[in-house]
Amino acid sequence: MRNKPGLERDNDRADTLIVVPAFNEQNNIVGVLREIRNSLPGAGILVVNDCSHDDTATIARTFDGVCVVDLPCNLGIGGAMQTGFKYALTKDYQYVVQIDGDGQHVPSEVGALFEKMQQERCDMVIGSRFLDVDSYRTTWCRRLGIKVFYCLFRALVNTKITDGTSGFRLYNRKSLQLLARFYSSDYPEPDAIVLLKKNGLRVAEVGVAMRQRENGRSSITPIKSPYYMVKVILTILFSCARARR
Amino acid sequence: MLVPVGSFDKIQWLGIIFSLIILLSVIFLVRERLIKEKYSLVWLLIGVFVLVMSVFRGLLEGFSALIGVDYAPSAFFALLIAFAYLLLLNLSVSISGLKAQHKAISQEMGLLRLRVEELEKERAKAEE
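ok -> structure tokens follow
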């Protein structure tokens, strides 16, 4: 049943695994899982609990049919997502969608990701906050940052990417096979773009709506953001310098 | 080369004692399996280097003249810093390797735990 191509069917997504990385998201996880269930009733759901010290895992387990992986140590978003990739491969899923446990990704937008993948015949689709500019209000400072990344991706891997750090993504099996082996821990999203492109896989972007977070705080504060920029740029440059796998 | 034991300077004795302490501790640590042979090599090299340089003073002076350093001890320090640098780089490589292995094991453990839960559930259902 899972081996049927999933792009043709709209509502049943039995060949798709939704991976929800979660670290201390006890206030958000219920809403996220409920929304996924409503928008994508057929898809498998895997919550990767990245060693939370709250009730994230217990709450996620109360959902019937939701699988929960408890990592014994905190691996960060990269390590958590890679766990999901490995699980998807062993369970023969054809597609993986990442939906963060903090509720900023909107499950009803997953359809747009699938549409884009079918149109462009690509191996990974990124849901971008910035492609349709109106949907997301930002400061000039942030716009500058986006521009810098845009130029960097364009120069280095010849791809137009407006939101290289977005985690809201759809992967097909081909890209999963690569990323299950190589997915960095620290800034995996921009790194993955470069890795896939270097290995001849196709990457596309589609504009989606995203939410501002409801509970909890972003890990990036105004003071830290230039530092963050430098680290991400460095990550991108290093992944370009790396050999093909 | 003859070793003029009677004419050692204080600093030479200090160097000899220091290097012997390094060498003996490394040998002890390897013998007790507290460090791996692989990592002991750089330490042993440093120990031997300090020992040889302390015993044969002329070596260091000859070497510093060779690389054009006027003040012999600074050539010695430069070499020691280079050793330390290599050692630290070596450790960073080892730590990165460990980190990658640790990540893979943690992921595998999480997935196996999930598998065990599934199997337990299946068994409980079968027993009913």
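The two ends of chain A are 32 Å apart (CA to CA).
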